Amino acid sequence: MTTTGIPTLDQAKLEAFVGQAVVDMGAAISGLMLHLGDRLGLYKAMAGAGPLTSVSLAQRTGTAERYVREWLANQAAGGYVAYDPYDNTFELPAEQAMVVADEQSPVFLGGAFETIASCYADHDMIVDAFRSGDGIGWHAHDERLFSGCLRLFRPGYAAHLVQEWLPALDGVVDKLRAGANVADVGCGYGASTILMAEAFAHSRFVGFDSHRPSVQAARAAAVEAGVQSRAHFDVSEARELPGTGYDLVCLFDTLHDMGDPIGAARTIRRALAPDGTLMLVEPQAGDALEQNLNPVGRTYYGLSAVICTPGSLAQEVGLGLGAQAGEHRLAVVLHEAGFSSVRRVAETPFNMILEAKP
User: Fold this and answer.
1) CA angle, corner 162, sides to 159 and 164, nearest 5?
2) Of 43, 64, 94, which closes a domain?
3) d(Cα 238, Cα 143) in Å, to the nearest integer?
4) What Cα–Cα distance (Å) separates residue 92 from each residue in 23, 51, 72?
5) Could you tell me if 351 and 279 are in contact, meaning their C-beta atoms sit under 8 angstroms apart?
6) Which SS3 state, helix, strand or coil, does residue 301 take?
7) For 161-180, how does the pLDDT look when each residue is reduced to its tens digit (9 = 90+)?
8) What does pTM read for this prediction?
9) pLDDT in the model for residue 81
10) Please, which pLDDT band fits residue 3 given cuts at 50, 70 and 90?
11) Which of 50, 205, 313, 358 could form a cystine bridge with 135, CB 3.0-4.6 A?
């Protein structure tokens, strides 16, 4: 038997990569554990409670102690909770609580793991799409995708939208204070629309989404927030945006999901008032792949492969921009749609905010 052609392995590199894969293996199963902790209220019960035993945590949450004991051990191994071997107690540090227990925190990530859990549930459908090249409509996904996206994006919007992003747009806040006509296209459960309606009592906001259950949820959320008189929601495709004379149209993390983003942007441009503004919020990304080879890019490429790109391919045109399109490609889309100027006005580690003018 000849060994010709068999590459010589670098043992150190092999061992390093095995170590990396083992870390990812632990992260993969621990992501499920995080989702369980979120869904069962385990983190919320631990937040601010000090050291707890598995028995006391199970009693607080109405769960079975034997399961909770194993869950806590996983959390301690991952550094999510602190373990005291002398008292056999577990504690959720305040810093960790901001990420996994406090839904009002700007760094809350429970929604991200809910979104990822929905992708695992859609595994067979995604396998078929990879083989056939067909798209997967937004409506076809596990329902946790919709609630997960709300909880994933809302903390960032709450922290930055009114305080930073809108003021970065030329003259928009003055219009909103005086009374503006605003459309939020692809509004989902309406978090962004409602945040703006809460901040600007003299303006009128309409959220549009093609997913009827999301629109129904947004209407209920507006009533709960007490802004239903100035925040309305309707079912509509972006390319069929009703109305004209909008002072501001917003696209929050949705343009790259559209099958025909150029057609949608062209419709939006026509619907804007002559001095109107499009605010485009998109995932943070460089223009070249090598600029996105980092933890945020890794996450977005993964979500793009199973949610964003399949969603675009399921629609007419099916351009498939992907979640990491980058500022240059997005600007090309907007210029092709007829916008005369596009500029980046703000950014976070997770989002870039572009202003486009007719």
Assistant:
1) 75
2) 94
3) 22
4) 22, 8, 10
5) no
6) helix
7) 999 999 999 999 999 999 99
8) 0.92
9) 98
10) low
11) 313
CA neighbor of 118 nearest in space, from 92, 96, 95, 139? 139
CATH code of 53's domain: 1.10.10.10
Tell me if 77 is assigned to some domain: yes
Q: Could you tell me the two tokens for 312? A: 């675009």
The pLDDT tens digits for 106-137 are 999 999 999 999 999 999 999 999 999 999 99
Distance CA 295, CA 92 (A): 24
Assigned token pair, 116: 């990822």
Q: What is the CATH number of the domain that holds 298?
A: 3.40.50.150
Six token digits for residue 283? 């995932």
The parent domain of residue 268 ranges over 154-309+316-357
Token pair in block for residue 34:
């995080």
CA–CA distance, 40 with 211 (Å, rounded to integer)? 28
Mean pLDDT over each residue of the chain, to the nearest integer: 96
Name all contacts of 137-142 with Cβ < 8 Å and 24+ positions apart. 137/311, 137/314, 137/315, 138/210, 138/211, 138/257, 138/311, 138/314, 139/211, 140/314, 141/307, 142/117, 142/118
